[in-house]
Amino acid sequence: MVETGKFIEEAVAEIRDEVGDEHAIIALSGGVDSSVAAALAYKAIGDQLTPVYVDTGLMRKGETAQIRETFAYMSSLEVVEAEDRFLDALSGVTDPEEKRAVIGEQFIREFEREAKETDADYLVQGTIYPDRIESEGGIKSHHNVGGLPDVVDFEGIVEPVRDLYKDEVRDVARALGLEDIVAERMPFPGPGLAVRVVGEVTREKAQVVREACHVVEEELEEYDPWQAFAAVVGKGTGVKGDNRVHGWIVAVRSVESRDGMTARAQELDWETLQRIQSRITGQNENVARVVYDVTHKPPATIEYE
Ligand code: XMP
């Protein structure tokens, strides 16, 4: 276990030493890793750091407001409203990997522009130890390792939490006073709600899934799942009043896991499931039905795409 006080002191000194009087930039995702890296870097170099948060339109409900609040003390925070650009870029894209690629490219474009505008010399990243191991071993490419540094010519890359495991990052987050909502959050995929919409992402589907995910997170908090969320998986027939309607099918998923590599679907009680169903169908008249996913990983993945 990391000794948080000592770790923070040393990390701050190291960042100060490395960046000196120059300028640094970090992409904030709202996740705990980049939040901790940003908080450490800000402690070290203050407004020489520009934290950039890109609102892709595929973030959780209230995420942008939450970021503005949590990082309000960083006067150099840049919030980029990029929803239209992301949704335009995703228009007509149905293949899951192509969606990821489009989102990754658009993100680089947004960040590159900010990096050029701020004339940043250093890139700060929230890479943690397991990310490095997985990337080095070629298991999967991590969106926060590589990619960006190839596009913008940085003098150096600073990774203050590179030797920490996730639970240690959470300890440091708490020691830094980052709110529980950041420190304790369940994992959220880099491509955001796009992997919780089967097929093309549209503004309407993003809105349906964002509201439904919020309901699921709220209702299942007491079950303490590894991840719990909703996904728009297709269309089906329902009845609203006297009419048959062709509405969205929303799947609810709640899993227990240790590391995301395997997972078990959680057993939920009927009342909870019914409450979720009634809130989701109640908040949007275009949702025709709600189903609960009982599939473990394997054979399913956790996300839908
Ligand atoms: P799957 O769906 O592959 O997810 O069982 C395993 C874990 O990884 C997250 N996930 C992603 N995270 N970029 C990410 O940063 C991605 O493209 C991505 N796809 C899945 C997922 O939320 C789960 O925690």
TrEMBL record:
SUPFAM superfamilies: Adenine nucleotide alpha hydrolases-like (SSF52402), GMP synthetase C-terminal dimerisation domain (SSF54810). The keyword Protein biosynthesis does not apply. ATP binds at residues 29-35. It is an enzyme of class 6 (ligase). Its EC number is 6.3.5.2. Residues 2-185 form the GMPS ATP-PPase domain. InterPro entries: GMP_synth_C, GMP_synthase_B, GMPS_ATP_PPase_dom, NAD/GMP_synthase, Rossmann-like_a/b/a_fold. Keywords: ATP-binding, GMP biosynthesis, Ligase, Nucleotide-binding, Purine biosynthesis. It comes from the Archaea. It catalyses: XMP + L-glutamine + ATP + H2O = GMP + L-glutamate + AMP + diphosphate + 2 H(+). Pathway: Purine metabolism; GMP biosynthesis; GMP from XMP (L-Gln route): step 1/1. GO terms for molecular function: ATP binding; GMP synthase activity. The keyword Nucleotide-binding applies. GO terms for cellular component: cytosol. Heterodimer composed of a glutamine amidotransferase subunit (A) and a GMP-binding subunit (B). Catalyzes the synthesis of GMP from XMP. HAMAP family: GMP_synthase_B. This is GMP synthase [glutamine-hydrolyzing] subunit B. The gene is guaA.
